[in-house]
Write a structure and sequence with these properties.
The protein is mainly β. The protein is 9% helix and 44% strand. It has a single domain (2-334), classed as Neuraminidase (6 Propeller).
Length: 335
């Protein structure tokens, strides 16, 4: 009991130091500065990430069925949190309730851009249980027989346990009820399917919901990699179906996953430009907040999330697939 109590006190002390010292250290860093949290071995392709309330990073890769845990600091080590035996890839990840994360796994080959329909599965990753020392913190939620592939995940309703699942190969966005496994296609239109200017089969990719306040119109946003667009559409929060017409708010750029800042602007990972864009969805104007076409600092960014530590709201964490030029990595962008 004493050993356990001492360990808990030590863990609490470390968390406090992390929450206090890291933001203070970052204040002096210029906007646009990119630092490396962790660089993985050559050949690793990073896919997505989520941030815990304690600041730690959960990151997925698609060159192995692995989920990693990293501290939000420069030169962090990457702890293998869980390997999903029997699957080839881990794609999207999102937090539904406090420290309750959901990921999707399946069988797909990155080199040939092929996927096995019927192999996709949604999992719950209970980080509360992990923090208590439980080894049984990962559990299967549902098999996903319908989608040809499942890439991005977004929260539709925390209260109802509803998630959006983007199927880039099938060109649709589905809804999954994590409480009972019920699933259905909610969105399927000309902006979710793959199409010009690229021949890649990746249609709807990242997917997230934004509602400015409880009285404001809720929108689902999604990126379409093949069409090089970012789209938003008003929705019914009860079931995720359309409540209006889709609207393109960015076009001409190879988009992947994204998130929102405190003002409701979109922070978009743009693979082809090796950059992060900040997009005003109302004016449709954007600025580059990090990276550049000729730099490998943010080579082929695949996803972005804002830090969650105190005084850490101007720091974004970005996964890189590397674009075949550099190893996959998690980077830290000061904005």
């Amino acid at each position: 009991m004493f050993v356990l109590r001492a360990a808990l006190l030590l863990s609490s002390a470390i968390s406090c130091v992390l929450a206090i010292s890291v933001p203070n250290e970052r204040r002096a860093i210029a906007a646009g500065t990119v630092q490396t949290v962790h660089s993985f071995p050559n050949g690793t392709i990073m896919e997505n990430l989520a941030i815990r309330s304690n600041g730690q990073i959960l990151a997925t890769i698609i060159t192995a069925p692995n989920l990693y845990l990293l501290d939000p600091k420069v030169n962090s080590t990457a702890t293998l949190l869980h390997s999903f035996t029997g699957y080839q890839v881990v794609f999207g990840i999102t937090e539904l309730k406090d420290d309750q994360f959901y990921v999707v796994t399946g069988n797909a080959t990155v080199a040939t851009m092929t996927s096995v329909q019927g192999s996709w599965v949604a999992w719950r990753v209970d980080m509360n249980a992990y923090s208590r020392g439980s080894k049984n913190f990962v559990s299967m939620v549902a098999h996903l027989p319908g989608p040809k592939m499942v890439n991005g995940i977004g929260v539709l309703s925390k209260d109802a346990g509803l998630l959006y699942l983007a199927d880039p190969f099938g060109g649709a966005i589905s809804v999954l009820n994590v409480n009972n496994g019920h699933q259905y296609v909610a969105i399927n239109n000309s902006y979710t399917v793959a199409g010009p200017p690229f021949t890649t089969p990746l249609g709807a990719n990242g997917v997230h919901v934004y509602q400015a306040n409880s009285r404001a119109t809720p929108y689902v946003y999604w990126s379409n990699t093949a069409q090089s667009i970012l789209v938003r559409m008003p929705i019914h929060l009860s079931d995720g179906t359309p409540a209006g017409n889709p609207e393109v708010i960015l076009s001409g750029f190879e988009t992947d996953d994204f998130t929102f800042d405190s003002q409701g602007n979109v922070l978009q990972a743009v693979m082809g430009s090796n950059s992060i864009f900040r997009i005003n969805p109302n004016t449709k104007k954007f600025t580059v907040v990090g990276g550049s076409v000729n730099s490998t600092d943010l080579a082929a960014p695949s996803a972005i999330q804002i830090g969650r530590l105190d005084n850490d709201k101007n720091v974004a964490f970005v996964t890189l697939n590397g674009g075949g030029k550099v190893p996959g990595a998690v980077k830290m962008l000061n904005m």
